[in-house]
Amino acid sequence: MKKLVFTFLITLFVTNISAQTIFGKWENRDEETGKVDSVIEVFEKDGKAYAKIVEITDQNRQDAVCDKCIGKNKDQKILGMNILTGLQKDGEEWSGGKILDPKNGKKYKCYIQLVDADKLKIRGYIGFSLLGRTAYWFRKK
Fold first, then answer.
1. Which SS3 state, helix, strand or coil, does residue 46 take?
2. Most buried one in 8, 20, 120, 136, CB count within 10 A?
3. Which residues form the DUF2147 domain (predicted)?
4. What is the CATH number of the domain that holds 114?
C-alpha cells in the first residue's frame, strides 16, 4: 500500500512539474471565432526556446505557403515552419527572440510567459513592448 501511495505522489508531482513549462504543443485560436486554427510546438534547443507549426486545422490550407514572407521563408510551406526563434529564459518570461506571423510575413521581437499551466502569453512588438499585440496559446490536451 505504501508503494502505491508513493507511486501516486511521484506521478502527481512529475505531472505538475511538466505542466509548468512553456514546452509542448499549444493551440492557436482565431481571435474572432475562438476556433483552433493551428497547433504550435514549443521546444528547447541549446537552452533557447523555438516553435514551429505542427498542425493546420483547415484542410484547405495544408499546403499554404508564406507568400508574404521574405528571405528563406519566402514561398515555404507554413506547416512545419519555425515561427518562434531564439528566446532565452529571463526570470518568469522568455525573451530576446523573434516571432514570425505567417499571415503577413512580418517578424517581430517577442516575449512569452506562462500565465498558468495551460495558457501561454505571447507578446509581439516593434521597438519596445508597449507597441505591440498580445495573443494567447492554450495547451493542447
1. coil
2. 120
3. 24-139
4. 2.40.128.520
